Amino acid sequence: SKARENQIKKTKTVCIYCGVGCSFEVWTKGRKILKVEPKPESPANGILTCVKGKFGWDFVNSPDRLTKPLIREGDKFREASWEEAISYIAKRLREIKEKYGPDSIGFIASDKMSNEEAYLLQKLARAVIGTNNIDNSARYCQAPATVGLWRTVGIGADSGSIKDIEEAELIIIIGHNTTESHPVIGSKIKRAQKVRGAKIVVMDVRKHEIAEKADLFIRPKPGTDAAVLAAVANYLINEGWIDKEFIEKRVKGFEEFKDYVKQFTLDYVESISGVPKDQIVRLAEVIHKAKSVVVLWGMGVTQHLGGADTSTIISDLLLITGNYGKPGTGAYPMRGHNNVQGVSDFGCLPNYLPGYQRLDDENAVRKFEDSWNAKLSTKAGLQIPQMIEGVLEGKVHALYIVGEDTVMVDCGTPLTRQALEKVDFLVVQDMFMTETAKLADVILPASASLEKEGTFVNTERRIQRFYKAIEPLGESKPDWEIIQMIAKALGADWDYKHPSEVMDEIARLCPIFAGVNYSRLEGFKSLLWPVNDYGSDTPLLYVNSFATGDGKAVLHKLSWAPPDLKDEVHRVIVNTGRVLEHFHVGNMTRRVEGLRRKVPETFVEISKELASKYSISTGDTVLIKSRFGGEIRARAVVSDRVQGDEIFIPIFASDPSKGVNNLTGLEVDRASGTPGYKDTPVVIEKVEGG
Ligand code: SF4
């Protein structure tokens, strides 16, 4: 009614940008978003917020939103009814499954889906189609961190909460631009330094804002951070600055580890990393002096071909110094997307069932088979880069992509585009006509988070509810409803009336979510998993034992070798990352005018050395050509944030031709399957008259 449209409605919601998981009350009038108000009871952020969470919501009412299902006809799309679109998808998927088998179909989940939606997508893949080919974009970012933590302590997630980061005496930040990627945590860290005198160490190839504030800034050559950390471990062991009691009681493999790190002498590591010996010693000293140490890391660690190894040595360092299981300690891989943690936790991984239950655990598999009334495959599925390769090799014939702009975010844009053009059948479920959607056979219009209910998990394993503030735009539908329609059209007997029923099923099947339900998450209430039957949660992991078979952590050796990136021609290395104003490639923030005005265009940061070598000044257009084939043009910003033979290009792409993944190659980290985004050698030249 008119009267209701004029009323202001306040709804609790959770930010859909980064992994801090800020929660707010959003004020709406009709469809209009009036303001976003953080509340003191917001568990992750209190009254803090950043520019994206506060002002980044207008995309919800963007005229670019998709509002009707679309079916391809030749080079164009035509509007279709939901019935027609769904039955067409079901028919094609059934045909492809019959002809080529269930493993010829792959599913890619968005890290912005709710937990319930992620669970249903993997259930569609596993129980209805019969394949484990389900993955999510954690593959592009933090999968190496997960591997490093699985190897050593057992759980691929932050070992404590944001509170522990705030309480630590020493905060080490490696390959992570905290201020721009996780702004609220960045503010909390700076406050800890100012108010409590916490020490900050930053190790990064780029001198970003938090690096300027650091008590110690270490700038290794790209790909050598693992060696620097191994040298620190070696030094700590030699000086006897380790926690012997902790190691004896709780850690295995110390003697082998000690022998392994011996090769990382100060002289050797200085020569390969460019980090002066005295800085390595200083880092060892501050670790030794601090009563509690946390390490935060991001894509600067994980988007390298040795990302899993660097993540492993971080965890090793924490173990030998006893920095796990106590307040103010632990390992914190910073989750990028708001729900990248949850989408993995709730089962969109090719090698794990929901709640990290293993495919080779017969009891777990039987439990899911009984509940889902289906026979499950126990063969691990394909990771995203393998699905793309599978298409090019003629093994994968259909892809179902939810809310992911695969063309732009996957490495090697030209080849990814080729694969998505080639695949027999492509379904894309999204809010916008992305570069990926443009290649689809069917596009299904999805609703925004403000238009539905569900839960997200932030970087600290905190599960939070978000509520519906406005109705779905046009004929768009929440992802969980769309997935259920597809499952039903394929013969499944699903009948979920509300996401809370999905969560109840998850709680019955997954021990780590045993006590999770919607009433325990009412309003601003939240739970950090694991949550036991009685609803008590776990802010701090590993207090008494590690999540390994016998409860002991394992020191893990590396398979590290010095990086070999450049060739004779391609002497410059591209680094990539976020900018504060835009999220990721910018599919949402580009549609928020205020944010677009602040950073309208993709740029390239160039070191002073390179600028003078190539006579480039700020504002010049630069042509960047990759060793892997692609090229892009962008405006130069000469800056001492980068040094030596390095340039920085944000992942924010103001148009598709400026996407940094036009440059990246297809090589992946062997242990985790994550592409080496930041291992891209290029040549640069100034474009005359540009
Ligand atoms: Fe909070 Fe991150 Fe959202 Fe900013 S983008 S408001 S820091 S959750």
From TrEMBL:
GO terms for biological process: formate metabolic process; respiratory electron transport chain. It comes from the Archaea. Keywords: 2Fe-2S, 4Fe-4S, Iron, Iron-sulfur, Metal-binding, Molybdenum, Oxidoreductase, Repeat. Its cofactor is [2Fe-2S] cluster; Mo-bis(molybdopterin guanine dinucleotide); [4Fe-4S] cluster. GO terms for cellular component: membrane. One of its GO terms (molecular function) is 2 iron, 2 sulfur cluster binding. Residues 8-64 form the 4Fe-4S Mo/W bis-MGD-type domain. Coiled coil: none annotated. In the C-terminal section; belongs to the prokaryotic molybdopterin-containing oxidoreductase family. This is Formate dehydrogenase subunit alpha.
